[in-house]
Amino acid sequence: MLAKSRDGLALREVSARLRAPKSSLLPLLRALTARGYLAQGRALEYRLGPGVLDLGAAAPAHRDLVEVARPAVVDLMRRTGETVFLGTLCSDRASIVYVDKVESDHVIRYAGGVGDRRPLHATSSGKVILAFLSPDEREQVLKSLSLARHTERTVTSLPALRASLEAIRRAGVCVTTDELVPGASGIAAPVFDRYGRVAGACAIGGPTDRVGPRTRALAIEVTATARTLSAALGHRPRDGKEAGARGRTSP
After folding, report:
1. Which of 9, 128, 155, 169 lies at 20 to 30 Å from 245 by C-alpha?
2. What is the pLDDT of residues 94-133, one digit of tens each?
3. What is the DSSP letter of 178?
C-alpha cells in the first residue's frame, strides 16, 4: 500500500484503506517508524523507511537460510534457554540485521526483533561475520567502520579489532561480553553457503551473569547448530576447515 503511494499516506488514509480505527493503527505506525521501517514527512504522512530496504535485500538472499534454520534455532533455544538470533550483513555494511529469532522463556532475557540492526564491531554476530568474510571484502568493511564506543569493553581501534577477528577465525566462534550493552553477552558461530561464503551468523544472547559461567558449553551448542545450518545450505568444509578460515572463498 505505502510502496504504491508516491506521496505517502496520512493516518486517516491508512485507516480508511485498511478499515481499521486510527487509535489502533497509531501505536503500530509509531513503532514501525521508530524502527526505521516507516518514515514521516513534513505533513506527517507515512512512507516506507530505510529499514525496509534491509529486509528487502535480505529476503531473497537469505530466505533459504531462514527456512532451513527455524527448527534448528528453536531446538537451540530449548537446549540453552537463551534467545537465539540469525543475523546477516546489513546493506550499510556497518551493521548486522536480524532475519530471525527465537526468544528465551526467561523473564530476564536478551531482547531484539527481526529487522533490528546492531553494529558489526560490538556484537558476536557482527564480528563472526566480519571474521569470515574474504580478506578483500573484510578490509573494505573495516575501513568504513566508525568503531563507536558503546561500553567500556567495546573494541574501538582497528588493530585491536583485527586481532580479535584473527582469534575468532582460529576458534571458529565469537564470544562478546558487555561490548554493546553492560550486562549482556553473546556467542555466535558462522553459517556458510554451498560456495563456502559466510551467509550469516547463528547466535545466542543473554545476561552476562547467566551466559558467562556456561560460555564453553554454550559455544559448543551454537557451533554445532551453525554447522547443521551450513550443511543444510549445501556447505561442505574442505579438509575439515571452513573456506573463510583460510581467508578465501570457493569459486
Report:
1. 155
2. 889 988 888 887 877 777 778 888 999 999 999 999 999 9
3. S
Residues 62 and 140 placed together within one structural domain of the fold = yes
- The grid coordinates listed for 11 are 493516518
Nearest to 243 by CA among 165, 191, 175, 167: 191
Identify the pLDDT of residue 6: 60
pTM value is 0.70
Phi then psi dihedrals of residue 188, to 5 deg: -135, 150
Q: Are residues 179 and 74 in the same domain?
A: yes
Does residue 234 lie within any of the structural domains? Answer: yes
Nearest to 67 by CA among 232, 187, 210, 191: 232
Write the CATH number for 128: 3.30.450.40
Residues 25 and 62 in one domain: no
Burial of 211 (0-12, 13-18, 19+ CB in 10 A): buried
- ∠ Cα 108 182 163 (to 5°): 125
Tell me how many domains the chain contains: 2
